[in-house]
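Trying the structure run again after the queue cleared.
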Amino acid sequence: AALLKVRNTLGDEMAQDDAYAVVSWLALARQEGCSCLRSASSHWKQGCRFIAVVPLFCPFAVPTKRVAAIDIELAQEKGQDANTSWTLLPESCPEVVATLRAVGLELPSCIEVPAGYPETTSMTSLTQDLGIQRITWSSVLVDRVFPWARTTTDAAARQGLMLAVVKRWQEMELAGGHDQCVEILREVPFVTSVGGEILSPASMLDPTAEELRRLYSTDGSAGPFPAADIFNVLTSAVKRGVLVFRRELSSAELLERLVFLSERAQAEDGWESTRAISESVLQYVAQSVAPRWLPDPMAEKREKQKHKNSEDHHKSGSSNFFSSLQKTFNQLASGESSTSSAPRLGPWSDEEMQRVQQGLNTLSWIPAAPFPTEWLAIVKWAGSANYLWKASEMRLKPEFWICGAVMPLLCLDTQLALSTDRKGQIQQAFIQMLHIPQRIGASERQQLLWSQLHAVRDWWVSASASERSAQGVSTWISSCLYRHVYPQLQLHREDGDELVPWEAEPGGEHELKSLYIEGGFVEMEDVSLEQGFPIAGLQQLPAELQQIPMVRGCVKPSFTFDDFRRAMGRLKAKLDSEQRPQLNMSEVDTAVRLAIAMADRAKTFGSTSQPDLLTAEEPALVPTTRNTLRVANECVFNNMKWLSQEEQRKRSAMVLTSGLDWVHQSVSNEVAQALQVQGLNSRVAAEALMGGDDVEDGPTWFEAAGQQEELTTRLRSLLRDITEGGSASSEADLSMFKELLQNADDSEATEVHFVWDWRQFGTQSLMSPEMAPWQGPCLWAHNNSSFSPQDFDNITKLGASVKLAKGARGGKASQIGRFGLGFNAVYSFTDLPSILSDDVVLFLDPHVKHLKAMGASAHKPGIKLRFLKIEPLNKFRDQFEPYHGLFGCDLTSSAPFQGTLIRLPFRTKVTARQSLICNQSVTMTQAMRTVAGFRAVAAQCLLFLQNVRKIEFSWIPPDAGPNATPVPIVNVHIATPLPSLTDATQPAAALPSEPEASTEEAEEDSLLVGERPPLETASVNTDLEALRYRSLFSSRTLLKSRERRTFIDSLLRGMGLAPAPSGYAALVDGEAETQQAALAAPPPEQRKFVAFNVQLVTRVQALPGSQLRSEERVDVWRLFLQHDDAEDGSWNPSLAPDADDGCDGAGAAAAEDEETTRAPSAAAAATAASGMAGS
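Done. Tokens:
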């Protein structure tokens, strides 16, 4: 009661001294006790009302107020004992308690021992005895501190308290098992950011994650990251896991970064920083955002495990240690963890995913990849611009060859910086998320290809000369366009069964206007497939581009005349602009080649459409000997090089003083003439017409000559008559050969040689440029007899030949129609025959188009040239080189040529179409067919000629040189005759029996190409007398049977022989019935006859690949003459050959038994006569 009175007296607010006194007394009371001590247990103080009601404590943070452990008034009011409702703060972390007190945080249920009480140990023991509980720090934080921190507006107080809590977290015994406190602490805003804001740890990013810091700045001065000083304070808490900052952005934060970059997409200020941030954002999106679009491989497994755990829990009825252990094991197996080192935001909602994807696709935030090492640094690269791009504006870097100059590119390998084993899947998810096509579609590809082509060309046009010539530029552009752009370009696309043009992008065009060739872009009009003149700006399409159908289809096949003329003008303009007096050597070479090309094009116009090169708006230019360029009609070419040196000097001075220039020496006369350059002969002719004093009477070394009628039509008709059908078939070919043989025979030639020459000779040094088409393959006809002046006259009269009468001076009655009508058969092969004999070469030009410059005219369509006077190989080497060295023709000698050499150059397909005589050309196949056909009749032709004893066909292949030796292929000749008969009664030799046809054919079939079987040993040789009779019986005047009979009768009478009986005449020219009756009737008397033998040898040496077979065969022909008395030798002197006929030989003629040969004599004579008639 006394103490109650004291309490009531002192009140709740005791002075410190009073409080000390009470506490001291209570401490003594523990020892001395009271009546409660004796009636209570060791916890007597808990039941001691006196102690419980003493106001020994003060409320938390109210040190002036005293409260008892039990409120006595409340206890008395209730009428029962009241337990204490006070709690004490934990004894640990006085700093935290001090901070709580400092911030004035109210803790209504908490009391504390007033400061300054002595014997703290005793007070501690007393509070224990009184049963006052100490609450845990987790309860204080959860129930009081965290709610206050969330609601207070005093940010400094909140930050101070939270920092103190975090610093003493371990001392507050919160290190383990207090996840709730940790989670709540992360949501409390108490951490100062680098921007000065106070944010909760959950809303901040881990400052140690450099990849996150780079999303906001390059120096770490921006972003939701803790300030450095604060983070240093929190480091230990971070290490202990008390505080964990996020390592990934929220969807809102990511969108904020995209908007930030889009607003600075084209800002020049701070571009380097902006690009660095964009690259970091790009990597973050690829590494952290793109995987969200991949299917979760563990989702199904986790769902199955969750279902299994639910079933197990249902069966057990409650969870226990083992189920908890199983759950932990499952988490470890699935890659999950019960605690995480960093808080995860979890999966985004569908709405968040949609917003993020929309921002990724519509905002400009992606940096372009830098150009690859294969790209040339000075060439435009679209990604080099200081821009950020939308995903729709970009394509992948592997396509840089087709769009690097026009579209920014994204490099998945380097820009995304992926290193996981799911790299490929993440890259796929990334480009799908951004809707970037992995491969550009066909239509867009064409647009990009054309744009790339135009961009490269525009760069080249705008580049400086030093940039264009920089090392590697030409190589790089060629590689880009030739390998990647040109091969893929298309002008059209398939639309069903039709081809329609590709749609060009707005402002673009799909038209190939130029090509990159040899270091520059060349306009399409200056490119062709055939040839190039780079110095003059004309280019040939390179071989690489010729393999590309689209490019090849856009290029002209060849340059036109106007193209060459324009190029020549370009050279002239360059010369003038640079104020140079002369062209350099390469330019001269180009100008010469351009002139040649122009001439070639000018000739293709034809006579009716050839342009007027002199009056054209842009006249044709030609190079001169002074290495300048002048208009063609202001130049002269020398087509009179055969003039003497003195005369040449005189003419040259005349040209120069008249204000003209000589055309360049590398320009041939043919080219100059085609370009309408004045020929020197035209200048001389002009002077002659003007009556100049220095004009001579004219040259003595040539004169106009030729067949003097309207030739082309007449010759065409003659060829029709010769071939009896108007076709130049093998029959016509044989007719020509027979005519040439007959002409040679009329000239008393003994050998005729035909040579198929397939060589091609030069076309520069010709008498006239128009002669060039006739410098190719030809047929040579050579014989060992020379032309007489009369022969040259005859051949120009087109069939009106001189017929020599018998007995005329110098004439021969057996030569009828020499070189007249029949010679014109050669026009079935050629339009330009030539004949070289003695010192004359005659060129015949029925069309009057090849030798007009040399004086040929319609009146005399040809020229006759005495080559010994002009050194033809020096003046016209290409013209006369085919003749030189063939059959002993030496054009360097001063001696005439002994023999006759006829050259028949074949028509080509071009000249055949232009010919007004015959439209047939000659090929090797036709030549071999002709040889085979002539081989079958060569023996008969040779037998009934008067003088020719040998016919040979040879071959010169195309690749043979100028001095080639002809290769024999067919040789037919009469075997060497035996000496004349001395005994007329000696019987003639028997004819050899002919082998059976089947045996002969089998033998021929067994022959291989190149083989030659041994010559059969003949029992019969040629008789010397046979050649004499062969000459007599071969006269071409015996055209009719009556004339032939009269001639034979006269011959026999002249020889002192009796005329043939009437039966013989009937056999010769009677009708078939009369012949049969005469043969059937018995002879009026025994007839005697003499037989003469002619042995013909045929050798064939096959050429490789021809249809001819190598062989050698012998035919023996017999010539029969009947006589009344074979023993009468009076006719022998008449048959003796002339002493100078040149026949020589060995052997003797054998006489055949007259009894064995009498019967067939008449038939044999008829056969011989019939054979002569056929010849």
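The two ends are 185 Å apart (CA to CA). Worth checking whether this holds up in the mutant runs.
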